[in-house]
Amino acid sequence: MATHPASPPPVPRRVIIVVNLPKPPVGEGIARAFGRLGAETRIFMSHLENSRFDRYIIHHLNHLAHNLRILPKGVNWFEDHPLSHKEYRNRRFLELCREFKPDLVFLTRGLRFKLETLAALRELTTVFCWYTESEERFPEIAPELPFYHHTYFFSSRSLELARNLGYGNTSLLLHALDTDLFRPLGLPPKYDWCFVGQWHARRQEYLAGLARVSKNFVIYGPRWAKHTFTVPSLFFHLRGREIWGEALNRLYNQTRVVINVSVWGSAGTGANLRLLEVPACGACLLTDVARDASLLLTPEEDFVSAADLAEMQAKLAELLADDRRRQEVARRGCAKARSVRTYDHLVAEVAADWAACREGGT
Prior knowledge:
Elements: E1 14-19, H1 26-36, E2 40-45, H2 52-67, H3 85-100, E3 104-109, H4 115-124, E4 126-131, H5 138-141, E5 150-153, H6 156-164, E6 170-172, E7 191-196, H7 201-210, E8 217-220, H8 224-228, H9 232-235, E9 238-240, H10 245-253, E10 255-260, H11 274-280, E11 284-288, E12 304-306, H12 309-321, H13 323-340, H14 343-360
Helix pairs in contact: 1-14, 3-4, 7-12, 11-13
């Protein structure tokens, strides 16, 4: 008897992807990958979906009240006003879902939606959430878990916390790479090391220590100027509040060692975008220890890790002194990063879970 090849699993025909902002371009990468599966997509940017009344009046009144300590942080005037940011984005989001009629809403959890909105959304369609915040912020998402058909975490510690509460419809979803954007350019090195990311006290401590190893470095990211104005060893190496796209790709290509210092939690889990983006450019990545990084790349072969500042200083010095070792790590990391996990891999996981959820009727 002839056997027929198994039909491919169904994929959602319409998908709404929710992100905070257009950068980093995670939403675009996910949308393109869904498009390659034949899905029609919409991207809803929570932070940008706002009324003029909130942007020009409510926001400034609250900002002034917080600065004058009239209101404590986290408390806002006009929070329930129909034109406040919270109310407006919740209303616009539901309007889009009712109009577009998606088979799947893929929500990358940033700005929160009201529980009432999530309840209404669950009645309309299948709702998946990808929580990419620190495990220390897990209590924020815990009340929302009953409303999602499936919840992903990028930190294995957050996944453990959710499963300890009895939520089996959860799994780990690691970041992916846009291989069209991050790629080797063959440029000669210009900097010994660089760092890209928002200021944090821990990051400043590490970078100040690394500045004693080599002064040929640059820093990009918000809030650094404010906090390092009196630290000339860092301040005079600041080059901008942000860097994206091809400019970021060129920076990584022109740097011998790219530094990553994590600040999302104390458990040492999770793996941020730099873990794949830096090696994919052909640069050597030196990072603090993250337990989940080894799920994608091999430590000390595809990238170099350090348990503390002293070890990171020593390893940076070693990598700068040993061109052969540094270039070998960069070569292996590039080959692995460009093949191990793209947005097509990520979306294939999500589509498979959607098909299983649809089949199970949950």
